[in-house]
Amino acid sequence: MLPIFVYTIGSSLIMPSVTLILLDLFPTMRGMTSSLQGFVQFALGAVVAGSIAPLLAHALTSLAWGMAAFTAASFVLWLVYQRQSHPIDAVEQVITAEQLLELQERIKGVFVDELIEDYIVSLVTATRHHEDVYLGASARGSLALYRTSQARAAISGRDYVIPDDVKLLAEPVLGHRLIISPAARIRNVTAPTVMNDILNAVPVPGARAGRRFERDATVTR
To answer: What sign does the CA torsion over 192, 195, 201, 203 have?
Structure first.
Protein backbone atom coordinates (compact mmCIF):
# COMPACT_ATOMS: atom_id res chain seq x y z
CA MET A 1 0.00 0.00 0.00
CA LEU A 2 2.84 2.42 0.77
CA PRO A 3 4.22 2.47 -2.81
CA ILE A 4 0.76 3.17 -4.22
CA PHE A 5 0.28 5.94 -1.65
CA VAL A 6 3.61 7.57 -2.53
CA TYR A 7 2.85 7.27 -6.26
CA THR A 8 -0.57 8.91 -5.83
CA ILE A 9 0.80 11.76 -3.71
CA GLY A 10 3.59 12.36 -6.23
CA SER A 11 1.28 12.50 -9.23
CA SER A 12 -1.08 14.84 -7.34
CA LEU A 13 1.64 17.31 -6.36
CA ILE A 14 4.01 17.57 -9.28
CA MET A 15 1.74 19.21 -11.90
CA PRO A 16 0.08 21.79 -9.58
CA SER A 17 3.59 22.84 -8.53
CA VAL A 18 4.60 23.38 -12.14
CA THR A 19 1.34 25.24 -12.83
CA LEU A 20 1.97 27.68 -9.97
CA ILE A 21 5.50 28.36 -11.19
CA LEU A 22 4.26 29.12 -14.72
CA LEU A 23 1.43 31.36 -13.53
CA ASP A 24 3.90 33.31 -11.42
CA LEU A 25 6.19 33.73 -14.41
CA PHE A 26 3.40 35.02 -16.69
CA PRO A 27 0.84 36.80 -14.45
CA THR A 28 -0.65 38.82 -17.34
CA MET A 29 -1.24 35.79 -19.59
CA ARG A 30 -2.70 33.27 -17.18
CA GLY A 31 -5.28 31.87 -19.61
CA MET A 32 -2.76 31.16 -22.37
CA THR A 33 -0.22 29.93 -19.85
CA SER A 34 -2.69 27.48 -18.33
CA SER A 35 -3.67 26.15 -21.77
CA LEU A 36 -0.07 25.69 -22.89
CA GLN A 37 0.80 24.09 -19.57
CA GLY A 38 -2.00 21.57 -20.07
CA PHE A 39 -0.74 20.74 -23.56
CA VAL A 40 2.85 20.35 -22.34
CA GLN A 41 1.61 18.24 -19.42
CA PHE A 42 -0.08 15.74 -21.73
CA ALA A 43 2.93 15.71 -24.08
CA LEU A 44 5.36 15.05 -21.24
CA GLY A 45 2.97 12.43 -19.87
CA ALA A 46 3.16 10.62 -23.17
CA VAL A 47 6.96 10.82 -23.17
CA VAL A 48 7.20 9.55 -19.59
CA ALA A 49 4.68 6.78 -20.24
CA GLY A 50 6.55 5.68 -23.33
CA SER A 51 10.14 5.93 -22.13
CA ILE A 52 10.58 6.23 -18.36
CA ALA A 53 7.59 4.25 -17.11
CA PRO A 54 8.64 1.00 -18.86
CA LEU A 55 11.98 1.18 -17.07
CA LEU A 56 10.22 1.37 -13.69
CA ALA A 57 7.23 -0.85 -14.41
CA HIS A 58 8.79 -3.99 -12.98
CA ALA A 59 7.69 -3.00 -9.46
CA LEU A 60 5.27 -0.57 -7.82
CA THR A 61 8.08 0.53 -5.53
CA SER A 62 10.10 1.72 -8.51
CA LEU A 63 7.14 3.62 -9.90
CA ALA A 64 6.50 5.24 -6.53
CA TRP A 65 10.11 6.34 -6.10
CA GLY A 66 10.19 7.60 -9.67
CA MET A 67 7.18 9.83 -9.11
CA ALA A 68 8.61 10.95 -5.77
CA ALA A 69 11.77 12.00 -7.60
CA PHE A 70 9.72 14.10 -10.05
CA THR A 71 7.90 15.73 -7.12
CA ALA A 72 11.14 16.53 -5.33
CA ALA A 73 12.60 18.01 -8.51
CA SER A 74 9.61 20.30 -9.03
CA PHE A 75 9.78 21.45 -5.39
CA VAL A 76 13.49 22.24 -5.70
CA LEU A 77 12.88 24.22 -8.90
CA TRP A 78 10.11 26.16 -7.18
CA LEU A 79 12.40 27.03 -4.26
CA VAL A 80 15.12 28.18 -6.63
CA TYR A 81 12.66 30.42 -8.48
CA GLN A 82 11.29 31.90 -5.25
CA ARG A 83 14.80 32.82 -4.12
CA GLN A 84 15.53 34.55 -7.40
CA SER A 85 12.39 36.67 -7.57
CA HIS A 86 8.85 36.92 -6.28
CA PRO A 87 5.73 38.10 -8.15
CA ILE A 88 5.10 40.78 -5.54
CA ASP A 89 8.32 42.48 -6.62
CA ALA A 90 6.72 43.23 -10.00
CA VAL A 91 3.63 44.93 -8.52
CA GLU A 92 3.43 48.55 -9.65
CA GLN A 93 1.56 51.48 -8.16
CA VAL A 94 -1.69 52.22 -9.99
CA ILE A 95 -2.99 55.10 -7.87
CA THR A 96 -1.55 57.70 -5.52
CA ALA A 97 -2.54 58.06 -1.87
CA GLU A 98 -4.11 61.44 -2.63
CA GLN A 99 -6.24 59.98 -5.43
CA LEU A 100 -7.38 57.15 -3.17
CA LEU A 101 -8.43 59.56 -0.43
CA GLU A 102 -10.28 61.68 -2.99
CA LEU A 103 -12.19 58.64 -4.28
CA GLN A 104 -13.10 57.65 -0.73
CA GLU A 105 -14.61 61.08 -0.14
CA ARG A 106 -16.47 61.04 -3.45
CA ILE A 107 -17.99 57.65 -2.66
CA LYS A 108 -19.49 59.10 0.52
CA GLY A 109 -21.61 61.32 -1.71
CA VAL A 110 -23.38 58.39 -3.40
CA PHE A 111 -27.08 58.60 -2.57
CA VAL A 112 -28.58 55.94 -0.26
CA ASP A 113 -32.35 55.96 0.15
CA GLU A 114 -33.83 55.63 3.64
CA LEU A 115 -35.51 52.39 2.61
CA ILE A 116 -32.14 50.90 1.67
CA GLU A 117 -30.66 52.16 4.94
CA ASP A 118 -33.46 50.34 6.78
CA TYR A 119 -32.75 47.26 4.66
CA ILE A 120 -29.09 47.28 5.72
CA VAL A 121 -30.06 47.64 9.37
CA SER A 122 -32.59 44.81 9.04
CA LEU A 123 -29.98 42.47 7.55
CA VAL A 124 -27.49 43.20 10.33
CA THR A 125 -30.16 42.87 13.01
CA ALA A 126 -31.23 39.52 11.56
CA THR A 127 -27.70 38.17 12.04
CA ARG A 128 -28.03 38.79 15.77
CA HIS A 129 -31.31 36.87 16.04
CA HIS A 130 -30.64 33.91 13.76
CA GLU A 131 -30.93 30.63 15.63
CA ASP A 132 -27.62 29.31 14.30
CA VAL A 133 -25.57 32.40 15.17
CA TYR A 134 -23.81 32.74 18.51
CA LEU A 135 -22.64 36.31 17.84
CA GLY A 136 -23.94 38.46 14.99
CA ALA A 137 -22.61 41.50 13.17
CA SER A 138 -22.18 44.79 15.01
CA ALA A 139 -22.88 48.39 14.06
CA ARG A 140 -19.49 48.44 12.34
CA GLY A 141 -20.84 45.74 10.04
CA SER A 142 -23.75 48.02 9.13
CA LEU A 143 -21.37 50.86 8.29
CA ALA A 144 -19.11 48.54 6.27
CA LEU A 145 -22.07 47.28 4.23
CA TYR A 146 -23.29 50.85 3.75
CA ARG A 147 -19.93 52.11 2.46
CA THR A 148 -19.19 49.11 0.25
CA SER A 149 -22.65 49.40 -1.31
CA GLN A 150 -21.87 53.03 -2.14
CA ALA A 151 -18.55 51.95 -3.64
CA ARG A 152 -20.19 49.27 -5.82
CA ALA A 153 -22.76 51.77 -7.05
CA ALA A 154 -19.98 54.17 -8.04
CA ILE A 155 -18.03 51.41 -9.78
CA SER A 156 -21.21 50.49 -11.67
CA GLY A 157 -21.52 54.07 -12.91
CA ARG A 158 -24.40 55.08 -10.63
CA ASP A 159 -24.65 57.88 -8.07
CA TYR A 160 -27.25 56.00 -6.04
CA VAL A 161 -27.40 52.61 -4.32
CA ILE A 162 -29.91 49.93 -5.32
CA PRO A 163 -30.94 46.86 -3.28
CA ASP A 164 -28.89 44.57 -5.50
CA ASP A 165 -25.72 46.36 -4.36
CA VAL A 166 -26.54 45.48 -0.77
CA LYS A 167 -27.59 41.90 -1.55
CA LEU A 168 -24.44 41.18 -3.53
CA LEU A 169 -22.14 42.44 -0.78
CA ALA A 170 -24.04 41.24 2.30
CA GLU A 171 -22.36 37.83 2.52
CA PRO A 172 -18.74 38.89 1.86
CA VAL A 173 -19.06 41.92 4.16
CA LEU A 174 -21.04 40.37 7.03
CA GLY A 175 -20.34 36.65 6.72
CA HIS A 176 -16.86 36.68 8.28
CA ARG A 177 -18.19 38.74 11.20
CA LEU A 178 -20.56 35.98 12.31
CA ILE A 179 -19.69 33.38 14.93
CA ILE A 180 -21.70 30.25 14.28
CA SER A 181 -22.97 28.39 17.33
CA PRO A 182 -21.29 25.07 18.24
CA ALA A 183 -24.53 23.14 17.70
CA ALA A 184 -24.88 24.63 14.23
CA ARG A 185 -21.26 23.85 13.33
CA ILE A 186 -21.91 20.20 14.16
CA ARG A 187 -24.66 20.32 11.54
CA ASN A 188 -22.17 21.84 9.06
CA VAL A 189 -23.94 25.21 9.08
CA THR A 190 -21.66 27.94 7.71
CA ALA A 191 -21.77 31.73 7.58
CA PRO A 192 -22.68 31.76 3.85
CA THR A 193 -25.59 29.43 4.62
CA VAL A 194 -26.82 31.76 7.35
CA MET A 195 -26.48 34.85 5.18
CA ASN A 196 -28.40 33.13 2.39
CA ASP A 197 -31.23 32.37 4.84
CA ILE A 198 -31.27 35.97 6.02
CA LEU A 199 -31.25 37.41 2.49
CA ASN A 200 -34.21 35.19 1.62
CA ALA A 201 -36.10 36.14 4.78
CA VAL A 202 -35.60 39.92 4.97
CA PRO A 203 -37.92 41.82 2.59
CA VAL A 204 -36.16 43.76 -0.17
CA PRO A 205 -37.18 47.43 -0.62
CA GLY A 206 -37.73 46.73 -4.32
CA ALA A 207 -39.21 49.41 -6.54
CA ARG A 208 -40.23 51.64 -3.64
CA ALA A 209 -36.65 52.85 -3.19
CA GLY A 210 -36.36 53.57 -6.91
CA ARG A 211 -39.62 55.54 -6.97
CA ARG A 212 -38.56 57.59 -3.96
CA PHE A 213 -35.18 58.32 -5.54
CA GLU A 214 -36.83 59.41 -8.79
CA ARG A 215 -39.24 61.66 -6.85
CA ASP A 216 -36.43 63.27 -4.87
CA ALA A 217 -34.38 63.78 -8.06
CA THR A 218 -37.35 65.48 -9.74
CA VAL A 219 -37.87 67.83 -6.78
CA THR A 220 -34.16 68.68 -6.80
CA ARG A 221 -34.33 69.66 -10.46
So the answer is: negative
Distance (Å, whole) CA 165 – CA 143 = 14
> DSSP of 60-120, one letter per residue?
HHHHHHHHHHHHHHHHHHHHHHHHH--GGGG----S-HHHHHHHHHHHTTSB--HHHHHHH
Q: What is the mean pLDDT of the chain?
A: 80
Q: 139-148, pLDDT tens digit by residue?
A: 999 999 999 9
Please name each of the domains of the chain with its CATH number. 2-90 (no CATH), 97-212 (1.10.8.80)
The pLDDT assigned to 217 comes to 47
C-beta separation of 153 from 160 below 8 A? yes
Return the DSSP state at 202: S
What integer is the mean pLDDT of 195-216?
72
What per-residue confidence (pLDDT) applies to 220? Answer: 47
